Amino acid sequence: MFIGKSVTNEGWGGLMEDTKGLTVPAYSITSPVSAADTSTSPTAIKEETPSLADKGIYIISESFTPVLAKNVITWILEANLNPNRTFTHLTLIINSPGGQVPSAFAIIDAMKGSALPVHTIGLGQISSCGLLTFLAGAKGHRVLTPNTAILSHQWAWASWGKEHELFAAVKEFGLTTKRIMDHYKACTGLTEDVIRARLLPAEDIWLSPEEALELNICDQVRTMGA
């Protein structure tokens, strides 16, 4: 995590069974019909383009940036404001190498403020800011797939400027440390000593999904289709 200065196959049904049927629709192909009579002719092809947003689903598969934060927050707000929605919760699928901590916390605060619970699914990798965001999912609905790579580590900072500017930034160093530690404690129930020893020591910590489950990072480890 860094701070600067300034689907579809039917297997998803099993993985997301707790989404109450909110599986992603596949392309629907029917018998083609003629332009003159689309109701009876057996000769036309109809395609229904899947819409993840219509099902309350968003996929993060990139680094955390202000642009990503804007897109995810917009998705959350629009879903909450949509009077015609057919879903009762949101599903955020995360595959990310990490990125900028402020962008991650912007998304996390939007998730916490959402009237619709946000379920999280981690697959591929949830590293650094990806892990921070995954942790913020609704309790009981944070799912990892068996081959997900999990990385927990201390934040990094790149800064420059004159002496007084650098000393002024030291305050944010401490605030960032507290912000991340408080988040880990709230989402895992672990003590600060355990978090420091097992999740935020000096070196990077890579975890298997089973180890993440043991540390209350996730609530379930599931195979697609299980």
How would you characterize the overall build of this protein?
- It is globular, with a radius of gyration of 21 Å.
- It has seven helices and nine strands.
- Mean pLDDT is 84; it is low at 4-45.
- The longest helix has 26 residues, at 163-188.
- The two termini are 32 Å apart.
- The chain has a single domain, classed as 2-enoyl-CoA Hydratase, Chain A, domain 1 (Alpha-Beta Complex).
- The protein is α/β, with parallel strands linked by helices and 226 residues long.
- The strands form two sheets. Strands 2, 3, 4, 5, 6, 8 and 9 form a seven-stranded mixed sheet that branches. A two-stranded parallel sheet has the order 1-7.
What characterizes the major β-sheet?
Answer: 7 strands, mixed
**Number of DSSP strand runs:** 9
CATH superfamily: 2-enoyl-CoA Hydratase, Chain A, domain 1
What is the approximate shape? globular
Quaternary structure classification: single chain
**Total tally of structural domains:** 1
Name the structural class. Answer: alpha/beta
Strand content: 15-25%
CATH class: Alpha Beta
Count helical runs: 7
- CATH overall fold name: 2-enoyl-CoA Hydratase, Chain A, domain 1
Uncertain regions spanning at least 5 consecutive residues: 4-45
Rg for CA atoms = 21 Å
Question: Residue-averaged pLDDT, rounded?
Answer: 84
H and E string: EHEHEHEHEEEHHEHE
Fraction in helix: 25-40%
Descriptive keywords:
single chain, 226 residues, alpha/beta, 2-enoyl-CoA Hydratase, Chain A, domain 1, 7-stranded mixed β-sheet, two-stranded parallel sheet
